[in-house]
Specification:
By secondary structure, the chain is an alpha/beta fold. It is built from 16 helices and 20 strands. The protein binds nicotinamide-adenine-dinucleotide. Belongs to the aldehyde dehydrogenase family.
């Protein structure tokens, strides 16, 4: 699908790093292409080196004492200014991310970019309103102080780079850390816009830095850097392991928000139509969503009714140009990723798993893949056990609640789960029993920023969201004064 490269050029998005308040190039560059039109690059970004990583961390280290010494309200003024600028630039950011990642333009405009602005406003307010816990014991007054931890490195994946980068950067800055952000190399452009907006918002040089490049190169150098005090990571479990090792090397706390293989449990007492409609939405953004409920687990007694309602919705999907309003399924981000998704389906076919729907590239060519539904031969099939991160769901049946829970908990992941039932008691029982950081009942993707967010098993380490994130980006200090000794 032809894209307007002139329009992109007219947006003047810098291809360089943003370090210490300045745009800085690297000798090497890497190409970025659009999943909507792979024919020519849309950008040639600076390819950061270990030296660049060192430069960025030093800028963050130098800026840290002054930023940390500001009150939360003073930092909040900068963050709110940045939120205003994000809102004013919604179209520019959404159009860029649509070309860079292929995400649907209407959802970028309606949800993801606004959420970026909201992340900054929300954390500005939360940090300002922090009340130090204070209590008396053993003749002393005790207080819990949040001390800014130091320079933080934040590394984000390609599936929603703007939203995820702001989700981690906002609490870090609000808590008084300075930040070096490393955006994903497959989709680096919206974070370059974020750097320009931070500059326009007047953030002091070095408080927020963006360094572009390849994960194994500049990313690895950043997480190993001895001056880094926190690492906030979102990405795959494989990279998460590497990040955890790197953090351990310097005894630096990390959070890791990793992959998912969420169960979507459909009980016989539920609103089948509502469940089927939501299940069909799991193909949104071509299934490149960590929280997606990719394993449909349906009670046997309603399987036929559920399946026919589900197909009614999935058959209405429109694959096509992510900029068009009527498109519902986006392309995959990269030919390598398309091949990876295809590999999963081919191996499932060879394994004897039944391809119920889809299972091929589409007739429109490019990087689109058919929404695919697979009935696995057994629960041990690779297609059930491993994250595909594409438009591929599996469907299995269960007889009763016990079996449903056993199937739900049968993978190594534990990021999210979705339950459809009309029974509050069942929701409570199953919700407690499933292994997941977030459980949605009769809904999906409703997010309240004050809730803890993260995964168990290989889906993650630690929690972000609300006060959990502000605690993570702080060193908590216990401050005690002997009662009656000060006035
Ligand atoms: P990835 O792990 O390949 O890359 C993520 C980021 O890590 C990129 O910026 C990459 O450059 C960087 N990186 C890669 N190797 C590195 C290294 N050795 N050192 C430092 N940085 C390195 O993941 P991806 O393919 O970009 O994203 C898809 C994965 O992210 C999926 O597993 C998905 O489920 C997960 N994800 C999780 C969440 C969540 O909130 N739990 C959200 C979105 C995506």
């Amino acid at each position: 699908m032809p894209i307007n490269r002139e329009m992109l050029r007219s947006m003047n998005i810098s291809e360089d790093h943003y370090i210490g308040g300045k745009r800085i190039a690297s000798t090497d560059r890497f190409e970025v292409r659009s999943p909507l039109d792979w024919s020519e690059p849309i950008a040639n970004m600076a390819r950061g080196t270990a030296e660049d990583a060192d430069r960025a961390v030093s800028a963050a280290r130098q800026a840290f004492p002054e930023w940390a010494s500001l009150s939360a309200a003073e930092r909040g003024t900068y963050l709110r200014r940045l939120a205003d600028l994000i809102e004013r630039n919604t179209d520019r950011i959404a159009e860029t991310e649509c070309l860079d990642v292929g995400l649907l333009l209407r959802s970028l405009k309606a949800r993801l970019v606004n959420r970026g602005a909201h992340n900054f406003r929300y954390y500005a307010e939360l940090a300002e309103n922090y009340e130090e816990r204070t209590w008396s014991s053993k003749g002393t007054v005790n207080r819990v102080m949040r001390m800014p931890a130091g320079p933080a490195v934040i590394i984000t994946p390609w599936n929603a780079p703007f939203m995820l980068s702001t989700w981690k950067t906002a609490p870090a800055l609000a808590a008084g850390c300075t930040v070096v952000l490393k955006p994903p190399e497959w989709a680096p452009l919206s974070c370059s816009i974020l750097a320009s907006l931070a500059d326009e918002a007047g953030l002091p040089p070095g408080v927020f830095n963006v360094i572009q490049g390849i994960g194994e190169e500049v990313g690895a150098a950043l997480v190993r850097h001895p001056d880094v005090r926190r690492i906030g990571f979102t990405g795959s479990p494989e990279t998460g392991r590497f990040i955890a090792h790197a953090g351990a090397g310097n005894l630096v706390p990390i959070t890791a928000e990793l992959g998912g293989k969420g169960p979507f449990l459909v009980f016989e007492d539920c609103d089948i139509e509502a469940a089927a409609e939501k299940a069909a939405l799991q193909y949104d953004d071509a299934g490149q969503v960590c929280l997606a409920g990719t394993r449909l687990l349906v009670q046997k007694s309603i399987y036929d009714n559920f399946a026919s309602a589900f197909f009614k919705y999935t058959d209405a999907h429109v694959l096509g140009d992510s900029r068009e309003d009527h498109t519902t399924v986006a392309p995959l981000i990269h030919p390598d990723h398309l091949q990876r998704v295809e590999g999963f389906v081919e191996r499932a076919r060879a394994n004897g798993d039944k391809i119920v729907r889809g299972g091929h590239r589409t007739s429109i060519g490019g990087l689109w893949y058919e929404p695919t539904l697979i009935e696995p031969k057994s629960n041990e099939s690779e297609i059930v056990q491993n994250e595909v991160f594409g438009p591929v769901l599996t469907i299995q049946t269960f007889e009763n609640e016990e079996e449903a829970i056993a199937l739900a908990n049968s993978t190594k992941y534990g990021l999210s789960a979705i339950i459809y039932t009309a029974s509050a008691e069942r929701a409570e029982r199953v919700g407690r029993a499933v292994r997941a950081g977030t459980v949605w009942t009769n809904c999906f993707l409703v997010r309240d920023l004050s809730a803890p967010f993260g995964g168990t098993g290989i889906s993650g380490i630690g929690r972000e969201g609300g006060d959990y994130a502000l605690d993570f980006y702080s060193d908590l200090k216990t401050f005690q004064v002997k009662e009656g000794t000060t006035e």
